[in-house]
Amino acid sequence: MTNIALIVLDTLRKDAFDAEFDWLPGKRFDNAWSTAKWTMPAHASLFTGKYASEIGVHAKSEGFDCPELALAECLQQAGYTTRAFSANLIVSPVFGFDRGFDTFEGTWRINVNSKNLKGWKEILETNQSSTGLERYTDVLRRAFAGQYRIRASIKRGMRNRSHDLVGKRTDDGAAKFLEMTQKTEFGDNEFLFANLMEAHAPYTPPNGTTEASSYDEVAATLTDNEPDKEHIRKAYDEAVHYLADQYQRIFAELKQDFDYVITMGDHGELFGEHGGWRHLHGVYPELAHIPVVISGSDCKGMCTKTTSILDVHRTILELADVDAPSRGQHLLSEITDQPRLVEYEGLRSARIRMMQKAGYSSSLIETYDTPLIGIALPRTYYGYETRDGWEESGSPAVSDPQKSLEECRQTLDVREATNDTVEIADAVKQQLKDLGYA
């Protein structure tokens, strides 16, 4: 079997990638697009080969709970050892993204090694029916029965405590993932997935010289209260530079054990373009245009045809010789120039509650909560809906791009949104808030 590594550099803009990753060998896909403007639906597409609306995994229906087999499940059933590492809370067992992975490692942001790793406070709170000594003896009984992984929980707690004592934790996954790749004895039939968060706010690399002061992306987008654009972008660029340096070392390790290494972004970031900040809202090209590079012995050159996250899904299946449904095309074979959609389903419910609490009017919230869609077409064309109407760039190969968009939309087998939200602990909610997800 073929060993395959899939590395997602979260929130990495295409222009920032081009500036810092020119050293990365492989075949580049210069006109590649995400299916969404944020992590959850983009990864859901990456793991299923379908649009987020088709599998019902997006802002209005959170959690990777679709009936379709996940990519890792398909590979696992085919005999692959499946490993994952994530620095992003969204791509973790909390939201169901551990499906099909034999092991799932993570950073200090959240315990993702197992859903059964718990803190003492959380454990004791589940034993409210007992009092005093009974509560502690009940915990020990459950631990010896295997219900709680106490030793692992203590080890993680001590490690996190040591981080707190020595100083601020500013690396968002790259250094720990490098350590993982150096220590892991990879064998044959390996699939490795990783999500690294250095390019995600708050942009604080260990060697950064620019302090990226926190700002409210909602206020920056909805009001005239904008932060310093040049300052924030400089902090972001420093974070990307650090990521590129670390990834060069990571890639050197990966190429020793993997036949193919796929490096890509999941979405971009806004720095005041179109009046927007971070990746709060919309399907703007700065959010949707992503880098994709496939590195391997037979991979070189540049592809300018319209491609998508969906195609990465199909490519991995083909490289692994696994048969499973996918909207994508095999990127290392002859591909046709196909239209690709970018979807925005609206705001997360937690975001809406925060905006209501902050005093934003219902009518204003509704305008930002309205679904939008964009389409990438041959000849580097991108057209997209905005709050103010239709915008576009490039020259389309068709006479009516909006008609093409509607034709593509009609092919979607939309899964009805459940409006369900995954139940998460308060500590996780705070981490999501710190990252701008709430």
Automatic annotation (TrEMBL):
Domain of life: Archaea
Protein family per UniProt: Belongs to the sulfatase family.
Organism, as annotated: Haladaptatus pallidirubidus
Name assigned to this protein: Sulfatase
Domain called Sulfatase N-terminal: residue spans: 26-322
Taxonomic lineage: Archaea, Methanobacteriati, Methanobacteriota, Stenosarchaea group, Halobacteria
One GO molecular-function entry: arylsulfatase activity
Pfam families xref list: Sulfatase
